[in-house]
TrEMBL record:
The protein's name: Menaquinol:cytochrome c reductase iron-sulfur subunit
Top-level taxon: Bacteria
Residue stretches spanning the membrane: 14-35
Limits of the Rieske domain: 89-162
Subunit annotation: The main subunits of the menaquinol:cytochrome c complex are a Rieske-type iron-sulfur protein (QcrA), a cytochrome b (QcrB) and a cytochrome c (QcrC).
Gene Ontology molecular function: 2 iron, 2 sulfur cluster binding; metal ion binding; monooxygenase activity; oxidoreductase activity, acting on paired donors, with incorporation or reduction of molecular oxygen
Source species: Salirhabdus euzebyi
Function: Component of the menaquinol:cytochrome c reductase complex. The Rieske protein is a high potential 2Fe-2S protein.
Length: 171
């Protein structure tokens, strides 16, 4: 009989065990999403590559800026889509390639090359008459306060590949 009393659980112990167990499950249920949120970026696969093919041969590039359209694969949470991008690409005097973003640094409008007959051989932003030189440098006295961003680029098998647009302090 003394053995039975030792193995019996009192009401107080039973409630203590039950509340501890339920509290533990509740805490685990609350912490699991937070832990998953914290470690999820580490578990994501790395990007395949930073550069995207434009399909444009480097031999086709001239000293005149050309509009080059290309598509990137964009992932927003669970939604994947193809996004069209544009770059102004040309060969500089030294033979190097310069790929400029068409996004005005003033308000984000689209700049065009030789779009305004009053400003020949310049990038022109129609939103507020913003002007950029051929090199992408902003013209003093016009709204843009910074030069056009330049895309990182690479050449593989004679085809131009573009990466991220990097803001420039000076052109």
């Amino acid at each position: 009989m003394s053995q039975d009393k030792k193995n019996q659980v009192s009401r107080r112990q039973f409630l203590n065990y039950t509340l501890t167990g339920v509290g533990g499950f509740m805490a685990a249920g609350m912490l699991a999403p937070m832990v998953r949120f914290a470690i999820d970026p580490v578990l994501q696969p790395k990007a395949q590559g930073d550069y995207v093919s434009t399909g444009k041969s480097v031999d086709e590039l001239t000293s005149e800026p050309q509009r080059v359209d290309f598509t990137i694969r964009q992932v927003d949470a669970w939604y994947e889509s193809d996004v069209s991008k544009v770059a102004w690409v040309y060969k500089q005097e030294d033979g190097s390639i310069l790929a400029l973003s068409p996004t005005c640094t003033h308000l984000g409008c689209f700049v065009g090359w030789n779009d305004n007959e009053n400003y020949p051989n310049m990038f022109y932003c129609p939103c507020h008459d913003g002007l950029y030189e051929k090199s992408g440098k902003n013209v003093p006295g016009t709204p843009p306060t910074a030069p056009l961003a330049a895309f990182e680029h690479d050449v593989k098998d004679g085809i131009l590949y573009l990466g991220k647009a990097i803001p420039r302090e000076e052109a």
